Every structure is written in C-alpha cells, then in structure tokens.
Amino acid sequence: MPPFLHLPSRIRLILWFTLISAVVGAFYAHILAVIDGSPLFTLDGVPRGVMTGVVIASVLTSFEVFVLTEPLGAPLRQASFPVHVTVKTAIYLLVILFALALGAWVFPVPNEKGIQRQDVLFSLAASFVFTFMFYMNRLLGQNVLLSFITGRYHQPRQEERVFLFIDMVGSTGFAERLGALAFHRLVNRFVIDLSGPIVAARGESIATSAMS
After folding, report:
1. Quick one: CA torsion of 193, 198, 204, 205, rounded to 10 degrees?
2. What HEC string does 169-212 produce?
3. Can you give the residue ranges of every domain in the chain?
4. What is the pTM of this model?
C-alpha cells in the first residue's frame, strides 16, 4: 500500500485539496500571464499561482479540519446561518488576501498595481467550490467523495471493516418530551460529539437514527 494511504484521513484530505488548488492556481496564473502578453508555452506566472493555491488551500482546509470540526469550532457550527456565513467569509477573505500578497512579494511582476480585483474574485469562487466539496465530503461520509474522485470505487474491492452501533438510551422518551425540532437538535449535537473521536481514530462516522 502506498505510504500516502497510511496517513491520517484528515492529512490526506488536506494534501488532496492542496494539490488540486496548486494545479488550479498554476493554470489561472498562466492564463493571466498569456493574456498580458507572455508566450503560451512558458511557465510565466506558474510558480506564483502554485504558491498562492497551496497557501489558500492548506490554510483553509486545515481550518476546516482542525478547528471547525473540533470543540473549538462548536460556537461557529451552532451559530445561525447568517453569522456562520459572515464569519467564514471574513476568514476566507483574509486568508486569500494574505496568500495573494505573499505571492506578489515572493514572485513580483514589474509594474504590477497591487492585488487585482479579478484575483480576489477568482480566489473567492475557488474557495466556494472547495467549501462545497468539503461539505459534500462530510455529508456523504469521511473520504467517500475523495475515494470516488480518485477512482477507489470504480472497481470492486474487498475491505475489512468493524461496525460500532451506538444507541441513545431513552431516545424515544426524549423525542416525546422535547418535540421533533428540539430532539433532532439533540441528536445532531450527539453525532457531532461522537464524530470527533471517531475521525481522530481514523474511523468513519455515518449517522442514522431509528426510533421504536
């Protein structure tokens, strides 16, 4: 088995998104360089694009994996949708501006007039796509989307898995006393609290519910 597959799932996720962002950043930066007059078959803009993509993806993915999914990120996870979106957008924008400024400093371009508006808009759009893919991965289950993209499920394979079923004692009584909305908030919090240790132990958390 390749050494990459022995890495913890969260590290593999960060590396995959960082690699994808590096490729996207290199392509975008090269296209801009060609538009500005550089020859098509050169590496103009590529190092800067790679660096910018790597910084944005590694920082944002690490933030999602090691902060938002941990107890430290619980207040933001439980915040209202407008608050959640506003805070994350502000964090993303700061990271993007930092990455663009770092790229401009390490790989300066003559007569460049600071950070360009289209760079910020493209980085925000790319970050939105990244966030969507990240949450789809969480919705489907750890590594399901990644395994599908990388071709893991394109051919039948045999795997050894251990299943752990956990029952919330008295869940039916809780549901009757709390009502549907409050009970599902309780179940959601219960799943979130359990998912952290499961993922940390390189397991996969798949939540289902059944009440009699």
Report:
1. -20
2. CCHHHHHHHHCHHHHHHHHHHHHHHHHHHHHHCCCCCCCCCCCC
3. 3-149, 160-212
4. 0.65
